[in-house]
Design brief:
Blueprint (H helix, E strand, L loop, with lengths): L1 H31 L3 H8 L3 H8 L8 H10 L2 E7 L5 E7 L13
Helix pairs in contact: 1-4, 2-3
Protein name: HigA2-like helix-turn-helix domain-containing protein
GO molecular function, one term: DNA binding
Organism: Vibrio splendidus
Length: 106
């Protein structure tokens, strides 16, 4: 029974991580006033895929791909466990990883 609880905890941690990454990307979109087309160009994905991302459809994304998206915008994610076994998440600013895109606010 303990293994079932641990598996459930891991699934919840995965969901939490996905939400944290998606929230950060949504925040980046808002403060930079990016539209979905531009985000799609930056991430090399279609507009419907961006829509799923911004709607926080976590079941459509792996943590790995979300981490790749986060790096494009210049952020990394560090995970650790507290002494009590609680997952700790920290976002760190890094150099953005997109090139060749020009965008102007109008």
């Amino acid at each position: 029974m303990e293994n079932v609880k641990e598996a459930k905890d891991i699934r919840q941690d995965n969901q939490d991580i996905k939400y944290i990454i998606m929230d950060k990307i949504i925040h980046i979109k808002k403060i930079n006033r990016y539209n979905q087309d531009l985000i799609g160009q930056m991430l090399s994905v279609s507009q419907p895929r961006v829509s799923d991302l911004l709607a926080k459809k976590t079941d459509k994304f792996s943590i790995d791909i979300l981490l790749d998206y986060l790096r494009v915008f210049g952020w990394s994610l560090n995970l650790s466990m507290s002494k009590t076994g609680k997952l700790q998440v920290k976002l760190d600013k890094i150099s953005p990883n997109f090139t060749g895109i020009t965008y102007s606010h109008k």
